[in-house]
Amino acid sequence: MSARERPAAGRCGVLLILLLALACAAVLLIVLPEEDREGDAACRPRTVSSWRADERTTGEFARYGNDAARTDDWTGGDGTHSVRLPDGRLLWLFSDTFLGQVHAPPNQMGQPHAWRDGNAQMVRNSAVVMSRSGDLERTLPAPLFTDPAPQQWRWPVAARVEPRSPGSDQRVVRVLLWTRMASQGPWIYGVPVATEVATLSLPDLRLEGIVRTSDQQSVGDPEKRVLYGTTTVDDDGWTYVFGGTDAQATSRPSSDAYVARVPHGGLADASAWEYWDGEEWGHEVTPRPVLGDGRRRGVGSAFTVVRDDGTYVLFTMAAGTEGLTTVSSYWSCSPTGPWHGPAKAFEAPLPEDGAVRKDAAAYNPQAHPALGGGGRFVLSYDVNWLDATPATAQANVTRNVSLYRPRFVSLRLGAAR
Hints:
There is one protein chain. By secondary structure, this protein is mainly β. The protein has a single domain (about 40-415), classed as Glycosyl hydrolase domain, family 43 (Tachylectin-2, Chain A, 5 Propeller). Helices cover about 10% and strands about 40% of the residues. It has 4 helices and 27 strands. The chain has helices at about 15-30, 55-65, 355-360, 390-400, and strands at about 5, 45-55, 75, 80-85, 90-95, 95-100, 100-105, 115, 120-125, 125-130, 135-140, 150-165, 170-180, 190-200, 205-215, 225-235, 240-245, 255-265, 275, 280, 305-310, 310-315, 325-330, 340-345, 360-365, 375-385, 405-415. β23 and β24 (about 340-345) form a beta hairpin.
């Protein structure tokens, strides 16, 4: 797909220099809202200025998923997250995952696309290793994170390499996990239960253990339960961990965003977590949302945050206003807000198949810092069949492997207007 861009913007006397300085200061006071003027000096309004489809990365997942050499490896998954390992490899983490083989077109129904075996195994999570050169190489034994209890499962979200403990020279991989429990009615994708943190050893990626950092079972209303880890951002010795609620009820088109923080190296220490209560950080506090009003402003339950110099930029699917393929963005000078927006970012490209485009939905935009750089950000998003019945959706993604795989875009940020 071609790039789509949005247009962005001798010797002087002492008096002229002073006037220019005063004019610049006045502009800054106009551009930045009152509550942001004491923030990072580099903070400025940001939005997407241009973007293009990242065919290279999207195609690599198609190549690997279609490879029929093995019968126990990844052919598709959602909940796409990644982390760069110290040796240069990239670890990709997925939630619900298809394993098995892919058959070349045409299939037995006469459809023109590759298809998964009808008996393809589906597991709750998986991990795929990419080489330093960008080639997907192998799927770790799946599921990597076993179910904590009957009718419960774990979905991996954000991951990062950090010291085993604050100040330690030994590094490990921490993977944040969402624990969910089977339910009925609007909770067809599971009721939120808890946030956990898994530790993987390096370089062999062996699971060492899992600790629970935020148990939500005492919160009676599932819509008010917060799961943390959809995205993380480092700043000034802290790891900021963003999370959100689930907008499962039809009366709430969007979810609320929350944020916690942990000192570097402390993700696996539940006592080190601090939560934002609307005024200050604390361990024994009631977390308050930093973004969301239930209607125009809000996030999907999975969103992502990046830093562009001193500005935080949040990407999420549009909050109930522009369909299921529009990515929106917000900006802020602080992880706790205030967040300004939403601004339309881009329309997520879907597979070219006409039937797929009609009934597919894009969701879960996620940033992959290891693939960006030089002012360029790479985001993935997942594609699924738009159907409220899981069995029907699974049948359709089995018949067409272009569904239920991540797709990627490369974008640049510019001044928000």
